[in-house]
Design goal:
This protein has 71 residues and is mainly alpha-helical. It is 48% helix and 8% strand.
Length: 71
Amino acid sequence: AYLADIATTSAEAKYAAKRVRRWMRRRYLLLEVPQLPGRGWVEYEPYGTVLIIGAWNYPFYLTLGPAVGAI
């Protein structure tokens, strides 16, 4: 039970915490010739509030796995 539920969720949370800065970093784009000498980039922003509904008698991972991804 520990390996399937808690260890998997913990590993996913650690991975997400380690990579979140990289995922949210601004990414610069190459522009077309007519748009030069401008600059272009993609900047990620959070959407807002998230509601995750899970059953109390289901495995731990089925509720907290999506929560880690949403955060």
